């Protein structure tokens, strides 16, 4: 992030600015060449986010990041030296019984594995408590992180020294993981950006388009989107370093472990930032963070819930009301033909009350014509 002296005001005063437009940089690279305009804007927005972070974060958020980093450290270093020694590559699998896989892991290393998983679970639990609006979108970010890890592992298949050597063995898996990562990244960012647009339209509506443009700029997510890209890069570097250390036989230098832990910790920090900033921007808006298309689908479903009515059957000959109905699930429901029974049931089934058989034909009480029960309902599909 940009240093504090990038701003034209002291940090204490700049942190009180609620509008991004009010923030100015001391030095603009665009003075050297206009091509650096975007770089200046990125510096400005990331610095603005850092000011907001300093003002809003507490020890609770730092503790959350600590648990994420601790999970990475415990999973990266075995204190009995088993991981560093390389283990027996002929013993594979996850079966708890037998001579291979998890059963071949020492008790201390197995305990570390369970402890690391526990730290990851608690890390996610705290994340969801901190940023309740982002719970749904955080799942996309978690799967992205997992896909990036799979991609880094796949690239080392047949090429332990990747990228210093390349093999086509794992390219199909790596390509699939890359597509999943890109797709989820687009879905995640679009959901946040389109929800931001809705938030600005509802909360800062003004007839003057210039004021609307200013409000939209003050809620700019350019810096946030850049952090999403940087986070993806850091997550890949961390995953690559971890896979590289394991893939090399004998194991590579401790330097790769250090890179894995360092960039893994930065990834945990970036994970929190990516969820925190939209929550800070939209948390008071009481708006569910989702894409415009997902919102339209939900509105259609809600409209369908409000306008739907149970279909009442009619005689196909005289249009007199029939004792058959069709529910929202599209299934016909026929009243019991037994006298004084108020039960009903599906065609050719038993009555829900008296267990009498429900017929498949209906005799109209008005015209006396017997016809198949389904003829008394419309042919339209129920959705």
Mean pLDDT: 76
Q: In total, how many beta strands?
A: 6
What can be said about the biggest beta sheet? 4 strands, antiparallel
Order of helices and strands: HHHHHHHHHHHEEEEEE
Which percent band covers the strand fraction? 5-15%
Q: Assign a percent range to the helix content.
A: 40-55%
* Ends apart, CA distance between termini: 51 Å
What's the Cα radius of gyration?
31 Å
Shape: extended
Strand order in space, largest sheet:
1-2-3-4
When the domains are counted, the total is 2
Q: Regions with pLDDT < 50 over 5+ consecutive residues?
A: 1-17, 302-307
Secondary-structure content class: mainly alpha
Descriptive report:
This protein is mainly alpha-helical and 383 residues long. It folds into two domains: 4-82 and 106-297, no CATH class; 311-376, no CATH class. Helices cover 54% and strands 6% of the residues. The protein has helices at residues 11-14, 37-56, 59-76, 82-85, 107-130, 135-155, 171-203, 209-218, 222-247, 254-282, 292-307; strands at 311-314, 321-326, 332-335, 344-345, 361-363, 370-372. Helix 2 (37-56) packs across helix 9 (222-247) and helix 3 runs antiparallel to helix 10 (254-282). Residues 1-17 and 302-307 have low confidence and may be disordered.
Describe the SSE topology.
Elements (H helix, E strand, L loop, with lengths): L10 H4 L22 H20 L2 H18 L5 H4 L21 H24 L4 H21 L15 H33 L5 H10 L3 H26 L6 H29 L9 H16 L3 E4 L6 E6 L5 E4 L8 E2 L15 E3 L6 E3 L11
Q: Can you give keywords for this protein?
A:
2 domains; extended; 4-stranded antiparallel β-sheet; two-stranded antiparallel ribbon; about 55% helix; single chain; mainly alpha; disordered N terminus; about 375 residues
């Amino acid at each position: 992030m940009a240093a504090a002296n990038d701003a034209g005001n002291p940090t204490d005063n700049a942190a009180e600015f609620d509008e991004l437009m009010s923030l100015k940089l001391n030095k603009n690279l665009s003075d050297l060449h206009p091509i650096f305009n975007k770089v200046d804007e990125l510096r400005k927005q990331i610095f603005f986010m850092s000011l907001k972070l300093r003002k809003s974060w507490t020890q609770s958020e730092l503790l959350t990041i600590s648990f994420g980093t601790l999970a990475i450290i415990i999973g990266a270093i075995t204190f009995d030296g088993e991981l560093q020694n390389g283990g027996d590559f002929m013993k594979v699998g996850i079966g708890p019984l037998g001579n291979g896989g998890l059963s071949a892991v020492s008790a201390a290393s197995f305990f570390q594995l369970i402890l690391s998983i526990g730290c990851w679970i608690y890390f996610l639990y705290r994340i969801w408590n901190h940023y309740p609006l982002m719970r749904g979108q955080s799942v996309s970010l978690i799967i992205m992180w997992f896909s990036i890890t799979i991609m880094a592992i796949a690239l080392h298949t047949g090429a332990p020294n990747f990228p210093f050597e390349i093999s086509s063995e794992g390219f199909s898996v790596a390509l699939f993981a890359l597509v999943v990562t890109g797709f989820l990244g687009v879905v995640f960012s679009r959901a946040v950006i389109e929800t931001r647009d809705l938030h600005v339209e509802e909360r800062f509506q003004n007839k003057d388009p210039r004021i609307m443009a200013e409000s939209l700029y003050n809620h700019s997510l350019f810096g946030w989107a850049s952090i999403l890209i940087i986070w993806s890069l850091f997550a890949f570097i961390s995953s690559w370093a971890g896979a590289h250390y394991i893939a090399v036989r004998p194991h590579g230098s401790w330097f790769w472990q250090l890179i894995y832990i360092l960039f893994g910790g930065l990834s945990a920090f970036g994970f929190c930032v990516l969820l925190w900033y939209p929550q800070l921007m939209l948390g008071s808006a009481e708006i569910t963070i989702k894409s415009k298309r997902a919102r339209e689908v939900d509105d259609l479903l809600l409209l369908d819930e409000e306008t739907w009515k149970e279909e009442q059957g009619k005689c196909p000959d005289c249009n007199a009301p029939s004792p058959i109905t069709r529910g929202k699930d599209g299934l016909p429901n026929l009243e019991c033909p037994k006298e004084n029974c108020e039960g009903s049931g599906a065609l050719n089934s038993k009555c829900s009350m008296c267990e009498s058989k429900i017929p498949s034909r209906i005799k109209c009480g008005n015209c006396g014509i017997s016809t198949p029960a389904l003829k008394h309902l419309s042919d339209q599909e129920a959705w």
